[in-house]
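Consortium newsletter contribution from the modelling node. Members have asked for a concrete example of what our holo predictions look like. Here is one, prepared for the phenylalanine complex that several groups have been discussing at recent meetings.
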Amino acid sequence: LRQKYLGLIGAAGDEAALEEVRLAALGKKGEVSALMKTLGKMTPEERQTEGPRLNALKDELNAALTAKKAALGDAALEARLQEEWLDVSLPARPARQGTIHPVSQVMEEVTALFAELGFSVAEGPQIESDWYNFDALNIPGHHPARAEMDTFYMARREGDNRPPHVLRTHTSPVQIRTLEAQGAPCRIICPGRVYRADFDQTHTPMFHQVEGLAIGKDISMANLKWVLEEFFSAFFGRPVKTRFRASHFPFTEPSAEIDIQCSFEGGTVKVGEGDGWLEVLGSGMVHPKVLQAAGVDPDEWQGFAFGMGIDRIAMLKYGIPDLRAFFESDLRWLKHYGFGA
Ligand code: PHE
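And here is the predicted structure:
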């Protein structure tokens, strides 16, 4: 019996099999237990020799069971460790990281530079009523500027009597919205998307502008020139001269188009050197009618506004010849200009 059960214990492959062996030997109906019950019917002499023998057998089997159980536990743990083994020294596969789009990058830079000059950021909707986009900016219905701007009009159903809406053609409506909301004095920029039906090497139907507006008691074009030269010099990392050319916008009087100093040698444009000029923004003193439309008293307040093409200055800064490439999401292009991961 001893040989039989020691053999079975040794052969048990897992804890369940081991438990079966235990029950067969030492369980209530086990073989060893049955032998123990026969002790009662023995003579005292027989019991004296058989009793210790049976107890010793029982103890030996119990000890063997305990030892085997521990061994099986160790083996199970070892197997699990083998199975769950990880080589943490294996180098990770390189994950391709996204990057900030050049236009977003330039927008952030522009915002940060104007923040240093005391301008906060204002925003307005890209779908704008024609009142904010045109009328309030002194562009009445018959004005040729409406046709010139190649406006996208929102489709209207029969019987829709909401005011007509457009995709904003410039960021200037934010001048009105901000003055209405905050009043004067005021010093804001508004970077954002604008839309015009135009498409060639230097025009895309969606592009980016940054509007600037500074209203106070005695703000002048001289302040505008200083602010812009500070900005351009910081943006291009070298002193940049500006040139003001008399121009016309319905919402400013007087108005000026502003060029920055450039050289054009060898087909590349370099800002801040040479004797060439490149137009980068429209500007002027805010027209009294515009202040009035926004609820600001033009006898008390005055100031400048400007609108600058963000994509345009991004092209200049990074030497990018074709505006359309900005919006084609070609990773090879982004990488070539140093924007890819
Ligand atoms: N809104 C004008 C444009 O888009 C630019 C501009 C802004 C001009 C502010 C003067 C003042 O062309």
